[in-house]
User: Fold this.
Amino acid sequence: MSPDVDLTAVPLPGRSVLRRLLAADARLFEVAAERNWPGAERVLPRLSRSANHGVLWCAAAAAIAATRTPRARRAAVRGMASLGLASLTINTLGKRSVRRPRPLITSVPAVRRLKRQPITTSFPSGHAASAAAFAAGVALESPAWGAAVAPIAFSVAMSRVYTGVHFPSDVLAGAALGVGAAFAVRALVQTRAQARPTARPSADAPALPEGDGLVMVANQASGTADRVSVLRTALPAAEIVECAPEDVVAELEKAATRARVLGVCGGDGTVNAAAEIALRRGLPLAVLPGGTLNHFAYDLGVEDERDLADALREGEAVRVDVGRFTTDTGSGVFLNTLSLGVYPELVREREHWSPRIGGWAAGVLAALRVLRADCHPLEVEAAGRRRAVWMLFVGNGLYHRRGLGAGRRTDLSDGRLDVRVVNGSGHPALRLLSAAVAGPLTRSPSHAAVQLGRLRLSGIAPDTPLAYDGEVTPVGGRMALEVLPRALTVYSPRATAS
Assistant:
């Protein structure tokens, strides 16, 4: 079909069928034009205009993100990404491939008509595509927010027929394209729900219907006031202690002496301190995310107060692995990752700049600053072999990277250390930049990956920075890393028996 041909006179073998469909479409448009829509005259034209250039959806995304929950922020971002892809497809392919004229509006009451009539071709409806893309994108990440947005999206789509600027089939095609765009974005960047955990070993943990027996320590520096307030309402019998960062460890130690369940609210570093104490005391741990990244809590399936409160009420818990490192000067545990070499310095620089310029740009700037500091590869001995590495990354459990999303773990009890190494030969610039921007999970010929139960290193230079769960400490000499299989009991709303 030529792109300039009027669809109402298409000379194809199936033209009679197509003509009948187009005629039925036109009749539906006339029926809609003649029908009385009670209360719609004041709402639908304004709603249709508000969706011009995506203004309505930008405002909706801002309102959703303003709730400041991780799920809501992801839903807003996914909705806008889906809308962007739908708009790009409509404007580059849809409108130019099928040049269908707009319907005649003589049968549409003047009070319904838009003040400015569109001059682009009719098929498909860009407004319907944007509405469906945004609503579907939001719903894929957060069904609750999707249900809230869906009536607005439906009304915007219907307003295009009501105001006489589109045929019903234009709206249906646009909506289908919008939903397809949302699923295309999901194929590139997984939703949280897609990365479902494998069957996990369930653990015996006390059910606390009112929170009695839970003592939670909240790090005030993490901005946890709102979350703590919601948790107090959900679990009125729980004891919650808010404290400054320098007092967190001391308060956790005190809490462990009187708690049936030790709770913690903060970032990964605060959670690490709580996990070490819970492990030593033999207590189950309840984690409420309150930091910037919250890797461990999110991999558990705990995203907000409701998730944790539900798990505590029902006594839903799992046993997870804990990574442990031992050096010549001490030992520690890690729930997420541990790294040596240049990466700890990259992390420090990136965290310094991230609040000002954003994470991606901060990663690039951090790599450039570290390179300018005349960095050298780390010399270590492993398995009797001396080697130079730019960075050594160790994950507590296997990290998966799918599409463009960040690496995540679907199994927190697989008994493996996920070891990634950036070899120290050659110039480090591209390797460090890729690791800074995309993380140590980046694949390239200069990266090596292996899964182990234990790892022993020696010959580490004094005062080499070691980063683990967001904390940085100097080490030197020898270091041993191992997995403590299923050593820690943690509340999780996704607990399933293996």
About this structure: Residues 1-10 have pLDDT under 50 and may be disordered. DSSP finds 15 helices and 13 strands in the chain. The radius of gyration is 28 Å.
